[in-house]
Design a protein that fits this description.
- The chain has helices at residues 76-85, 106-111, 116-119, 123-126, 172-188, 199-211, 232-244, 335-353, 392-398, 404-410; strands spanning 2-10, 13-26, 34-46, 55-59, 68-72, 90-95, 99-101, 120-122, 131-134, 137-140, 144-147, 151-154, 157-160, 191-195, 216-221, 248-251, 255-261, 264-267, 272-274, 277-280, 320-322, 370-375, 379-384, 387-391.
- Strand 5, helix 1 (76-85) and strand 6 (90-95) form a beta-alpha-beta unit.
- The protein is α/β, with parallel strands linked by helices and 415 residues long.
- The protein has ten helices and 24 strands.
- It folds into three domains: 2-59, no CATH class; 68-96 and 135-166 and 285-366, 3-Layer(bba) Sandwich (FAD/NAD(P)-binding domain); 172-283 and 371-405, FAD/NAD(P)-binding domain (3-Layer(bba) Sandwich).
- The chain is globular and about 65 Å long.
- Helix 1 runs parallel beside helix 8.
- The longest helix has 19 residues, at 335-353.
- This is FAD/NAD(P)-binding domain-containing protein.
- Pfam families: Pyr_redox_2 (PF07992).
- InterPro entries: FAD/NAD-bd_sf (IPR036188), FAD/NAD-binding_dom (IPR023753).
- One of its GO terms (cellular component) is cytoplasm.
Length: 415
Amino acid sequence: MYSTDYAREETYQRTPTITITSIARIVRGCPSQRTTLELPFSLHIHFPLQKKNFELIMDDPIGVKKRVVVVVGGGIAGSLIAKTLLNDAAVFLIDLKEYVEISWASLRSMVEPSFAQRSVINHLEYLPNAHIIASAATDITENEVLTAQGRLIAYDYLVIATGHADAGPCTKDEKLSYYQAEHVKIRSANSILIVGGGPTGVELAAEIVVDFPDKKVTLVHRGSRLLEFIGEKAGKMAHDWLISKKVEVILGQSVDLNSQSDDVYKTSGGESIKADCHFICTGKPIGSSWLKETVLKDSLDSHGRLMVDANLRVRGHKNVFGIGDITDIPELKQGYLAQRHALVAAKNLNLLMKGSEENALVNYKPASPMALVSLGRRDAVAQILCLPVVGRIPGLIKSGDLFVGKTRKQLGLKS
């Protein structure tokens, strides 16, 4: 809670100094529960040993006048807005994980674990002067955020960027070990089952058959076609590409994972699939369940998404922003759009902190449909507006480095 050190003022006199960076307080309505309130400044109390009076000095190494911005969620959107605001505000990042992962590169890390050394980044690497709180957020009031650790963080502005729920590893070392284990599982298997024909399932199947062409890969999807979030022609191109690589694609069926016996899985259509291992590549729920008992509960739509206005502020809350996949913005949920949200919200936050008028805020315009799905290390399928393209040309855009170098540069790191 506090630390004590001694500063010599004269050769014969020492003055004790108590530095306080946080204070304890009682959670409202719970007299027995103490929490820690983080201060965006330090309090230095100096007093001579022989005197009763003392001097109180407030010293903020990052600027007393800076507003406090709390960002909840350290994914693609949350990490970028925290980095962008770092020099203009006292930034607190609350994230259960100690790292940000360039999520669209995760499947490459399963076939090439060393790739994750660049795509999994500790928050402290790019946010050296921010306050990193490695915890989940559990409650929000009009001006404070409560964490699972019992820490109460006061804010001037709040950014919600919790995306999709993910119960993965919390440290970088654990995440790297996870990819190493997944790689061993793939390498040692002769046959592999992938459940889900969205972008994750298609990209994982492609990564495996390109790096391990002798593996028998079966992809099962309950929908009538692959990549249903983009046009039918683009989905058909991805389907044909997988077939050309000898991937077995089964559509219109689901897999009963509880039916697995002797490495044989049953589908809803009565088919039997032999597989040494399987991967679930279906969608994850929106990371908003924790908001349902907070002051933002009335700002969630029927799907659990945060309703935001054109300035990316949460409806009904002038000092709260929502960015990334958790928002109700009518566009495809993709990483590069989450980054765009972060930059627009950061610009508006800077304007508000400088005292600009409401009409000066920047509006976010939902993006036109565009998608780029990698197919291994060289190929990809792209849809730009209504034009689908497959092969090396779209692959040159994404599939080599998977935008890892570009994303690292945005965070101020070497590519």
